[in-house]
Specification:
about 210 residues; alpha/beta; two-stranded antiparallel sheet; 8 strands
């Protein structure tokens, strides 16, 4: 078996923006609520430095909850491929913990075994951004990414490993700044072949250690 390893940069080319769940985000109402929050926190939302904060926060929420559409992935025919492992790493995305609404940084590595065609590398970053741009938990994100990739290649021969830094654990509660959470999802040959599984885990860990 041969192995290809790539580091993916998110594809920032224009794509149709779809609001999460198709719902419109009322930025005016969000800004009003942020202003009310500042008041109950003992702040004056009209003072210098805070006057434009509610509008900025509302704009960010709209942008964050309207990630690029990940539905379409480009595949390229490669009829000579046989028994090759492809791993794409170096994907870093931000999400929000749905329990505390604090940021999560997710380092994502994905692997698959192509058969007759390969997936365009930039699409991996786009898929990661799509599922990160919402109130999320790392375990669900990992499964959603893997299931989406399985749907793209038409088989379950995929593996996804995610290492997360959760600010809800780093800056509140136990306040453990160096804590990391690792989740994996394997299917098809990655689940049935221990050698292939270990090869993926080893290469994923190597990419994280090199970061």
């Amino acid at each position: 078996m041969t192995t290809s390893v790539a580091s993916s940069e998110p594809d920032l080319s224009p794509v149709p923006v779809t609001g999460l769940g198709g719902a419109a985000i009322d930025t005016g109402r969000v800004a009003d609520l942020v202003g009310q929050l500042l008041i109950v926190l003992g702040e004056d939302p009209t003072r210098e430095g805070l006057a434009d904060t509610p509008a900025r926060v509302a704009a960010w929420w709209k942008e964050f909850l309207s990630p690029d559409d990940a539905a379409t992935a480009t595949c390229f025919t490669e009829s000579q491929l046989s028994d090759q492992l492809v791993i794409v790493g170096g994907m870093s995305v931000w999400s929000l913990c749905e329990h505390h609404m604090l940021p999560i940084n997710l380092q994502v590595t994905a692997g698959y075994v192509p058969s007759g065609e390969v997936v365009g590398l930039s699409k991996f970053g786009r898929v990661a951004q799509h599922y990160a741009g919402r109130l999320q938990v790392q375990e669900r994100f990992t499964r959603q990414f893997a299931e989406h990739l399985s749907g793209v290649i038409g088989r379950e021969d995929v593996a996804v490993a995610v290492r997360g830094v959760h600010l809800c654990m780093s800056m509140r509660g136990v306040q453990m700044e160096t804590a990391r959470t690792t989740t994996t999802h394997t299917g098809g040959r990655f689940r049935s072949d221990p050698v292939l599984n270990q090869q993926f885990i080893t290469l994923a860990a190597a990419q994280w250690n090199a970061a």
